[in-house]
Amino acid sequence: MDPEVKKKLQVKTAVALRRAAQVCGCAMCTMTEAVFHYSLVPGVFAYGLWYSGEFTLSPVTLFVLS
What we know:
66 residues; mainly alpha; 2 helices
């Protein structure tokens, strides 16, 4: 392979990999936010209810006024 062609191919590959890493980085941020909001936040809420002895799977008993 000609050295010029090889060099151009290396540069194009490096640019493509950097662009892919930027796109993947944004996707990871979005995915991390989704995991946080849809699993960690409810998990902390459930742990708080369990710790105080008020954890139940029935939403009716959760909001009963005493």
